[in-house]
Design a protein that fits this description.
By secondary structure, the chain is an alpha/beta fold. The protein contains twelve helices and 14 strands. Bound molecules: S-adenosyl-L-homocysteine.
Length: about 350
């Protein structure tokens, strides 16, 4: 049995033809799933019983089950714990902004990057998600909230560039008019910085936003936070970002999680300025989410503001990430870990 969400429309049209059906049945099935959010072949009323029977022999519609949902009373952020057919659990978060609904989705079950401040990586990586499993998070979330989702960030659990092929297939699928028609400029991919993959992505010349989890201005500090820094230096990473910018003309967004006493000093901000100046980019400062698996503590508000001021003075566009759903706060990977432990 195959997950029909792993197919694009031409795959399904081909399957229809190979199975003695006319091609346009493919489009009808896609409309039911992606436009009408019907996730049961039996309910597709313009498809004959015979065809439904055949479809059910080959395919299932791989929509995850909601095991838990947490809704913020402050800003209506919704955190979903989704369970796939094989019982693996991941998290997706829907955030409500003035400009529309945005979803943060996962690309792997767990993660093997080992960032020391992140809960998603504590038990390592279980498996990659397929393109269909990635898009299914958006489908199910839309169905749950009863509204369209217009923006997607690949910032849930997993390292997207460690699941490169499936993520690329997903990007193509979600962008297509026949499915959710979400524009590339409404999609952000966040990576801990796998340099060769950033360059490979640049060569695809997509119009998505690339976000880099930089978190440190130099190798020494970065290596204390992120194992990937042992493999690629900050210098190599920034060079690959320049390459991405030159190929796509898309401004890079740098994420910088502020940790008390580790990377939040004035001199750290100054060093960050020196490596990013004369590069058209954006810095997003993230007060770190404290998790019980480690000792990293959130920076003091004064230090966060000072950090921002130093960057802004040196001409770097800087924002402090607004905390969404702070009353249901569970840092990346926390919900899943708590659930599994239970
Ligand atoms: N693997 C990708 C995407 C998933 S992590 C990446 O590293 O970018 C999404 C973002 O959340 C990254 O910037 C990551 O560094 C950050 N993050 C992880 N744990 C965090 C925590 N406890 N507090 C704040 N940000 C965290």
């Amino acid at each position: 049995m195959k997950n029909i969400l792993d197919l694009n429309l031409s795959d399904l049209k081909k399957w229809m033809e190979d199975n003695g059906e006319s091609k346009f049945r493919g489009k009808q099935v896609f409309d039911w799933i992606y436009k009408k959010e019907i996730f049961d072949f039996e309910q597709m009323t313009n498809i004959s019983k015979k065809t439904i029977h055949k479809l059910k022999e080959f395919f299932y519609i791989g929509i995850p089950e909601v095991v838990e949902v947490f809704t913020s009373e402050i800003d209506n952020t919704k955190k979903f714990l989704f369970k796939y057919k094989d019982n693996n659990i991941i998290e997706s978060v829907v955030m409500r902004y003035k400009y529309g609904n945005s979803i943060c989705i996962s690309t792997q079950v767990g993660c093997r990057m080992g960032c020391k401040f992140c809960a998603s990586t504590v038990d390592g990586m279980i498996r990659n998600l397929t393109s269909g499993e990635i898009i299914a998070q958006i489908l199910k979330a839309q169905d749950e909230i009863g509204e369209r989702i217009s923006n997607v960030v690949l910032m849930g659990s997993g390292e997207p560039l460690d699941n490169f092929e499936n993520v690329l297939t997903f990007l193509e699928l979600v962008n297509s008019e026949e499915t959710l028609n979400i524009g590339q400029r409404h999609i952000t991919l966040s990576t801990c910085g796998i340099v060769p993959k950033i360059e490979e992505l640049a060569d695809k010349k997509l119009q998505i936003t690339l976000a880099i989890s930089l978190h440190a201005p130099n190798d020494e500090i970065r290596r204390n936070m992120m194992p990937i820094a042992n493999k690629y230096s900050v210098e190599e990473l920034i060079k690959s970002c320049r390459y991405y910018f030159n190929k796509t003309n898309r401004r890079i967004s740098f994420e910088y999680a502020l940790v008390k006493g580790i990377n939040d000093k004035k001199e750290n901000a100054e060093e960050l300025c020196s490596i990013l100046k004369d590069f058209s980019c954006h810095v997003n400062l993230i007060p770190i989410n404290e998790i019980k698996e480690n000792q990293f503590k959130k920076s003091r508000i004064d230090d966060i503001n000072r950090f921002k001021e130093v960057l802004t003075k040196c001409g770097i566009e800087t924002t402090i990430r607004r905390e969404m759903g702070s009353d249901i706060n569970a840092a990346c990977g926390q919900l899943r870990r708590n659930y599994i432990k239970k």
